[in-house]
Amino acid sequence: MRIYLCVLWAIRASGHNVHIAVDAQGALQLARDASPREPLLRRNGGSNETRSEVMLEENLAPPRTGNQSGHETPESLRAAEKERHAMSTLTYVWFPMAVVLALLFEVLHWPWAEVDWNLPMERSDGREGSEKVDSSFLGLTLLLASRAWSLARIYLAGAGRVKGRCYLLVLVWIHILGMYLDLITFDFQQRYWNLYQQPSLPLFFELIRNWFILHFTRMITYVYEFYVEDMFFLHCRDHLTRYFEAIWVPNTYVFRMREGGKFDNPDQRIHVDVANFVTQTYSLSFGVTKMIVNMLMYSYMLMSITPASMHAGTLVSIAFLYSAVGSAAMHFLGAQLAHFSWQGERCAGDFRSELRRVYDQSETVASLRSEGAELQRLKHRFEKIKLNTWQSMLLEKRLAILQKWYSPLREVLFMCILAPFFIRGEVSLGRLKQSESALDKISDSLSFLVDNYSRLSVYRATVDRLHNFRHSCLTYLHQEKSSRQAQDTQLIQTLALLGLPPGWPKRLGGADAPPAPAALPASAASGGPLQLEAALLLPSGELLIDVQLEVPAGACVLLCGKEGAGKSTILKAMAGMWPFLRNTRAPPSNDMVLIPQKPRLPMPLTLREAVSFPQSSTKWSEEEIRAVLDRVGLSDFAQNGLDVQLDVNSSLSGGEFQKLMVAHCLLQKPAWVLLDESMAHMSSANRVKMYQLLTDELVAHGSGLISTSHSWQELVSFHGHFYRIETSRTDGTQMHRELQTFDPKEALGEDELALRVKDKDAEIARLRQELVQLQRDRRNSERAN
């Protein structure tokens, strides 16, 4: 029997076919039946005959290709049992404990939030030109792409027409090289893992050499991709920032008045949102492109390496279905994330603005002792940040649960699909790893919405903020341009009636229009009158006053009226600053300076820059600037030099700051000077002195002067035209205002009479009080007696 078994073993070892091996196994079984033995070989014992049978049994087993046999062996059963007990502590102790603690935390942690859940917060829905966010699936895809492209064209059609496109071409080439390296890595992966099945030392060294070459090339592409990206981002951000500054800064006041504070924190939109838009647009655009390319490329490769017993498109179909379900679930759970992102930026911007206001107005806070009220305002602002953050946290927690299940479950699903083919020996380990890698690439591409949903929501809010901000700015600029074109058309028609050529003057604002002239000196100012024919409206649309005003060139006009009558509004309309006009015939705002009652300048500035602002400080010599400062009484500030930086808004008192504005007018020499209570913080003597300077150096050389003042009696000698706003109530509720001329002498007489009556009334009141006191003293003395 032993000789027969040895012959069979030799036949098996010599490489005969499987049929002989099967016959040998049958013979072995017959031998076992004929010679009873122990069923199992003990670890440290056993007869020689039993040992030989076991050795023969092992040698007669089918050859292995690196994967396990599909039959259950004692070793596999013991391995499964060992795996079952390997995580018993986690299964029966820590996992139930984690679930219970999580449930307890969900129930008990709400009082720790310290959030007012009933605090009203503004909602949003995403309409064109409004401060809204569209959280629908269409809003996160097609509408988002449309709005993002309209913003990107600003750069690509402007400064990025050549330079920006060159940057993009270089980056596209780098990305193509990166995809090529991905394919090389994909092919390298099969050879790398097959080494574990078929070990070879020479092959090992060649694989390591290729690995270093491959990853050194990837390092070079990564470094220069990162570097060129930063160059592109900075160039694009520079152009977009200057674009938004150009459409916002020239009409800042008008835009703010028109929108009524609807578009808050424009500084954040220009500084933060532009930077985020550039980087996010690039990363998402290339991400979508890479997603499509990878999906097509790896789908084809996966179908080519699919096991023979499986349909070629089965794995790709499973990946598509799994990603579609995950994307739908992610959008269902996170639809409001874009709104919370928008709202969070708004609340943070409001809080920063409130902190800055407290810093800028620290003197007012200290004088009013309003620290407690300011702390309450800051607390209210931060409560909104807390509420929005908590709402975002709750939503992101639900999304995190889905995302943390989505990727691991995908890996287990793909492993469950491919493992049977590996166990049956249909695929090698290298082919298995290739299939897993291809499935991961396809699934990552199809799961783009799931993996980037939070980024897309933040990006949607960023694009909406910039788009709506730009939409409103351009809408106003378009209205202004249409109004100017209508005025130009009317002027051209009038000139045609006078026999002038129709091509004169050129269309305002056109590409061939000459540049606007610089401010002329008063001696060269236009000789035309200053006209304002318009109905001035309040922001609510209510009529404020109907103005029909014509001021001759070089005239001095004094505008009087009660507080709130509309004096400042008329000056703003003359300067082209008031946007709420009807039936407009307003003067151009060129060569005109309006000094408000409380002007402010950027900080920090040197004294030279402050007196010259907004003109260049090199326009006038140091002698001219020092002479002007000396005439207005600010020569003490120039003792330390004109180029020492200081915050003029806090270093100068109210009266000194107004003197600085007068010095600016004396240097600028505009055709028209509009003073809106611009001397209110000066003493009576200084006020007269400043008006005398303006009269001698500007009005005497042809400049016009229009002033508003409460203490107008002392300014009569500096003006030649006098207007007063008369107010009355028509039906008991509606306020009617009318601009009328008046004689200052008669007004002074009326004022003197009013002062006398007031003095008499005060005297009568004093005598009455004395009489009451005498009567009280008399009654007290009578009671004492």
TrEMBL record:
Domain ABC transporter: 527-752
Region (Disordered): 38-80
GO CC, alphabetical: plasma membrane
Keywords on record: Coiled coil, Membrane, Transmembrane, Transmembrane helix, Transport
Pfam families (UniProt xref): ABC_membrane_2 (PF06472), ABC_tran (PF00005)
Matches recorded under InterPro entries: ABC1_TM_dom (IPR011527), ABC1_TM_sf (IPR036640), ABC_transporter-like_ATP-bd (IPR003439), ABC_transporter_sub-D (IPR050835), P-loop_NTPase (IPR027417)
Coiled-coil ranges per UniProt: 750-784
Listed GO MF terms: ABC-type transporter activity; ATP binding; ATP hydrolysis activity
Sequence intervals crossing the membrane: 92-112, 137-156, 168-188, 208-227, 300-322
Family: Belongs to the ABC transporter superfamily. ABCD family. Peroxisomal fatty acyl CoA transporter (TC 3.A.1.203) subfamily.
Identification of the protein by name: ABC transporter domain-containing protein
Lineage: Eukaryota, Sar, Alveolata, Dinophyceae, Suessiales
